[in-house]
From TrEMBL:
<feature type="region of interest" description="Disordered">
    <location>
        <begin position="299"/>
        <end position="351"/>
    </location>
</feature>
<dbReference type="GO" id="GO:0000122">
    <property type="term" value="P:negative regulation of transcription by RNA polymerase II"/>
</dbReference>
<dbReference type="GO" id="GO:0000812">
    <property type="term" value="C:Swr1 complex"/>
</dbReference>
<dbReference type="InterPro" id="IPR032563">
    <property type="entry name" value="DAMP1_SANT-like"/>
</dbReference>
<feature type="compositionally biased region" description="Acidic residues">
    <location>
        <begin position="159"/>
        <end position="168"/>
    </location>
</feature>
<keyword id="KW-0539">Nucleus</keyword>
<dbReference type="GO" id="GO:0006338">
    <property type="term" value="P:chromatin remodeling"/>
</dbReference>
<dbReference type="Pfam" id="PF16282">
    <property type="entry name" value="SANT_DAMP1_like"/>
</dbReference>
<dbReference type="InterPro" id="IPR027109">
    <property type="entry name" value="Swc4/Dmap1"/>
</dbReference>
<protein>
    <submittedName>
        <fullName>SWR complex protein</fullName>
    </submittedName>
</protein>
<feature type="compositionally biased region" description="Basic and acidic residues">
    <location>
        <begin position="342"/>
        <end position="351"/>
    </location>
</feature>
<dbReference type="GO" id="GO:0006281">
    <property type="term" value="P:DNA repair"/>
</dbReference>
<keyword id="KW-0805">Transcription regulation</keyword>
<feature type="domain" description="DAMP1 SANT/Myb-like">
    <location>
        <begin position="2"/>
        <end position="68"/>
    </location>
</feature>
<dbReference type="GO" id="GO:0035267">
    <property type="term" value="C:NuA4 histone acetyltransferase complex"/>
</dbReference>
<keyword id="KW-0804">Transcription</keyword>
<dbReference type="GO" id="GO:0003714">
    <property type="term" value="F:transcription corepressor activity"/>
</dbReference>
Amino acid sequence: MVMYNDEEYENLLQFDQDWSREETDYLFDLLARFDLRFLVVHDRWDREKERTVEEMKDRYYAIARKLLEARADNPEEAAAHPIIKDPFNSRHEMDRKLALGDQMERTNALEREERAILDEVKAIEERRRLEARALSNRAAAAFNPYRVDQTRASIDVDEMREEAEAEHEEGRPSLPTAEGADKRPPAGVYARGVHVVAVAGEMATAAVGAGGARGVRRIETAVEELGVKPPVVSTRAVCTAWLKLREEVTEMLELRKALAKRQEELCGTTPASEAAAAAAPAAKAAAEVFQQVGLLDTPRSKAPEVTLGPDGQPIGVRPAKREQKRKMPARYEDAPPSPPRRSAEKRARKS
């Protein structure tokens, strides 16, 4: 334990005005008596001003550092001492005790929750590591020198330059129209994607005619069913292909509509079936024969064929429920009841 004398106190140890000489002497006396056991010294402290364990440690080690630096022959010797090399930090000591108190008050549920969080963090880090490795492998495969050379060899720079020059005549790109041709707009800035969406609306409106918004919506639904969305990267090739697809979808819907109409005419479910039957030569001759014998000349759907089973009943058709005969009562209500047989025998014996 480091001790001081009056001269050293007067010259070196009056740097902290919060501690008086009397309190410092009392502190060192207790420390010398209890062999630097600060908890016991704090328990035996008997002065008007209360001191914490951290304050006592901070006062003692601060005085010890000053005395060791002053008594050392050279600075290197003093710097090698543990008290100077690892100085006491009262703020760190208080934080350490608070953390230790929180650790002692933790329950098993909190420990399980923290362990689950740490496991989840490890799983996330492992997943990110695997994703980064897979991305690195894909990048290495994409930028493989052999693959890059093959791609460069398949690209004709002169051909691409000619296409670019043909497309950007006088510095103005071409825009598609509803008729399928390209036009050169006036000089300026144009959003090709917005222009293509407007052209698609014009094409749909012109195709449906009197169908109106319902027909346009039918075209949009058919395109969505194919999994095709409006162009995101509005290049000339992408926009042209998208408009071509919408045109083909419109033609497909028209064919479906014509097919459904023709099927209804053949089945005789529409008023136009009579005119369609009269338009055919065979149907016209059949209609004349029907009129001569007094039959209707409207085509009728053919009756479905029914297959009979061994018992003569149609297979697959539920037989009609037979009407059960109602049983007549044993006797009429107005008729007198017949006497019992035993009574007749008794009367015969008496007579």
